[in-house]
Structure prediction request, 52 residues.
Amino acid sequence: MEALDLFKDMRTQGVEPDSLTFKYLINGLLDEGRSTLAYELHTTWMPSSLYA
Prediction:
């Protein structure tokens, strides 16, 4: 998934993703049937400060 690679590149370069980045990445993973990875992203990488 290109979005996941871009997300990893952002993190490597010190760019902090915002809530929209997480929204689209998680939705893309779910659309691909990768719910386990989407859950891991949500619980591990998404800062609690982005919860609305």
In short: The longest helix spans residues 19-31. The chain has one domain: 2-50. The chain is about 65% helix and 0% strand.
